Amino acid sequence: MTRRLAIRILAGFGGVALLLLVILAAFPWDRLRGPLERQLSEDFARPVRIGSMERVDSFSLSPRLLVRDVRVPQADWAGPGDLARIRELEIGFRLLPMLLGRLQATSVSIAGARLDFVRDAEGRESWSTGEGGDGTDLSFIERLEVSDSLIRYRDAKQDRAFTATLTATSERGIDLAGSGTIRGAPVRIVAHGDPLPMGGAVAPWPFHAEIEGEAIDMRLVGTMDRPLDVDHFSATMTGRGDDLKRLDAIIEAGLPGTQEVRMKADVRRDFPDWTIMGLVGSIGRSELAGEAVIRKRGERSIIEGRIEAAQLDFDDLASDEGLRRAAEKRERVGPRLIPDTAIDLKRLARTDIMLDFSVKRLLWPGPSPLQTMQGRFVLDRSRIVVKPLTIGLAEGRMNGEAVIDQRGPSGLAPEPMLTLAIDLDRASLFEFAPDAGVDGRLAARLRLAGPGGTVREAIGRSTGTVTIFARDGELPDRTASLLGQDIGRGITGSREKQAVLNCMILHMDVTDGDGRMRPMVIDTSRAVSRFSGRVGLADERLGLTMMGAPKQNSVLRLDAPVRISGTIKDPDVQLPEKARSAGNVLRMLGRAITGDQAPLATSIDCANEMASRGFDF
């Protein structure tokens, strides 16, 4: 009895299920036109209209519907017109996935479609319903036919637009062809996908896509994981652009403007992320290689990777417009030592970066002691930390860290704070001042922090200390004598003879960009020179006074202070008035004859001075 009852219950359930399948297989889907209009209108928040909808077949678990005269209005903010108009759409779908809330299409035929996609400067998308997905799976399509169809796309956020025709047949595959602009540059757009696998098989689907123009070229050749799965594919990418920022209009990683870019890489797309492998390319005359992962999380772009540069020119990391503005500024303000590199992070407010970098050769417009560079660059929510940072020199190296912080108490601060902590060890003084003919072992320590939109502006308003030591070197004998205000030997001495540089000590306390010498001393085998005064880091202007004393008797010895003005790159040494007349020259001679000169200089304790400030080299 129990077994018979169980069999009857199971048979009853089976009968009900079979009856349900029969009802669904014969269901008059055209009756759903009204509910479907209402649901789509709710999803798009605008009135969607369907002219007619009818079932093509009469009985099937994979029904086919013919829909005519579909109209989806454009979003109010996107302007007049329609987001979509479709004259005729025939779609076949599987019934069982439909019951689970997912539309799994098996055939699609579209005729007379007009699609107008708009994204505004804030990133709003006219085609978005605000949902994570529309529940549609196109990867099981066995038959696809598209004719007389046009796609228009306008994107104010990335300044790109195109209009293209879309055609597709089961025999030839899918083709997109059109033209448009990317950041104002005209381009031609072509894309092709192979015919769909027979029977709706889930298999890799070859495709290629190309954007071509004078200012930008990009080509993808690869395979999607399954047909029409644009969110999951692997491809080889080649690209060229007159500016990295123009290429970034396509990949949307928040990259800056640069010189001309060429690159090749293997890429993997797993929406919303990109993985870039085997990257090789160039920016200007800089040669780069590396790998990266670019992830999109909401409005944020997160970039993690590694870059190795065979050679790098920092000027390549600025666009032509940026270089032009920099040249105009140099012409206006004159030569400067402190770079005017922009550090404002407002444009990168939604970008996070963690990048290990290595540069085998740094390129400069002229001679420079800076040869190599390596370290780690981390940008985390408007705060950059470059640590560790190692810069290799022809002799010695720099070590330290740099921080650019633009985080405010409630968002982005108006301007960033730059903090520098750099140590220079066992370098050569000659490498930094080759024209002066001065050499020696060099070490330095820089600790500065200040606000500003550029490096120059931030250092010009910074507070901290700068300490420089040089020792065990040499300099021209005439120069050493003049530093001791020994005019006689400075004028008549041998041009070939060298003096010994015992040490140079420079310690500068900086407050709000105003640097005070405490002290600056140069001790040579000829003299001891002491400098006092200030250096304005904002404009690099000098306001110094030098008093020197020779270590041996001098025939012509200047006993008045020498003033130094001008700028760091272009100093102006001003001799006192009384050193310029014949009468004062005779008075200097008289003091030498009568012995009425100031005391001679004695060497300073260089080792003790350096040790007291923590230097040992």
Automatic annotation (TrEMBL):
One of its GO terms (biological process) is regulation of protein targeting to membrane. Transmembrane segments: none annotated. Residues 1-128 form the AsmA domain. Pfam families: AsmA (PF05170). One of its GO terms (cellular component) is plasma membrane. PANTHER family: DUF748 DOMAIN-CONTAINING PROTEIN (PTHR30441:SF8). This is AsmA domain-containing protein. It comes from Polymorphobacter multimanifer. The lineage of its organism: Bacteria, Pseudomonadati, Pseudomonadota, Alphaproteobacteria, Sphingomonadales.
